[in-house]
Amino acid sequence: MYPFYRYTKSIVKAVVAQKKGDTVDFTDTAEMQFRCSLTDIDNFFEMNNGRVFTLYDLGRTDFAVRSGLGQALLKHRWGLVVAGSTIQYRKRIRAFDLVTIKTRIAAVDERWIYVEQSMWVKGKPCSSALLRTGVTKGGRVIETQKVLDAMGRSNWSLPPTGYVAEWIESDSHRPWPPQN
User: Fold this and answer.
1) Were both Cys, which of 43, 96, 120, 132 would link to 100 (CB 3.0–4.6 Å)?
2) Residue 180: pLDDT above 80?
3) What is the CATH number that goes with domain 4-172?
4) pTM of the predicted protein model
């Protein structure tokens, strides 16, 4: 089940933080913390890999609220979508571990905002994800320039480089729909 209570709590915390001046810029890395609960673990008593992706939603939402993107979404009646992702797991997260999610914008192109996220326990990285995200209007992804204009960031750019550009290139060769 989706963690609606935890999601709502994280939004409230982000709104309060933003009102207190704890904001993030598009160039910043936002951090938030939570405890791995019993509803997050699998039969091996570690965080379920599917739950990791669900909890990364909380980090992206925190970033959106504290960066002002959340206000632009509400004002323009925009939505958010994840259109692709890749993840690496390196260390187990156990029940009751204090987890820090780090979220940052890794790149922006004409259509997509590439978000890098990671989970950390006791200063050690546990997982890292790269997501292709977009802002939507009426079910369609809108140009990122329109989003940047609405945020007062018309001249801001962060073109894909390094592993982000390599992932975009590699993913463009993947057949869609998948072949049997």
Assistant:
1) 120
2) no
3) 3.10.129.10
4) 0.93
